[in-house]
C-alpha cells in the first residue's frame, strides 16, 4: 500500500513538473511581429470572409467549365501572392446553403473584399455567387501560407 501511494505521488509530481516545463516553453510575445501583422492586444485582427455559393449560370460545356475553373484557381493564386487571400478552399460536402467554398480576405473592408472576389472568372461567369461577412481571427493566420508549398506535392 505504501509503495503504491509513493508511486502515485511520484507520477503526480512528474506530471506537474512536466506541465510546468511545458508552460515555461511558451513563446515570448513578439511586438515587432504583432505590429507587422496588425495584431491587437489579443493577437487578433478583423478579416472578411466570402462564402462562395452556387451561381445562376448552368454551363454544360466541360471545356468552358474547365477553363473557368482554371481561371478561378489562377486568380486565387494571384490574390494569395498579393497578400489579399489568406485562406481559400472548397467545401467537401453539399449543404443546404449551397456554399461551395470560401475565401478569407486580409481586409476588414467588405467593399474591398467584394472588388477582389469580382476578379474571379467563375464569379464573373455566374458559376459562383457569394455572401460577405466580417470576421475576427488570429493575426498570425497569413503566416501559414508560406509553409503551404512545403506540404503540397501538386497544385490543383
TrEMBL record:
Domain of life: Bacteria
Signal peptide start and end residues: 1-19
Regions that span the bilayer: none
YCII-related domain mapped to chain residues: 63-135
Keyword set, alphabetical order: Signal
Keyword presence, rRNA-binding: no
Family per similarity comment: Belongs to the YciI family.
Protein's recorded name: YCII-related domain-containing protein
Organism in which the protein naturally occurs: Chryseobacterium culicis
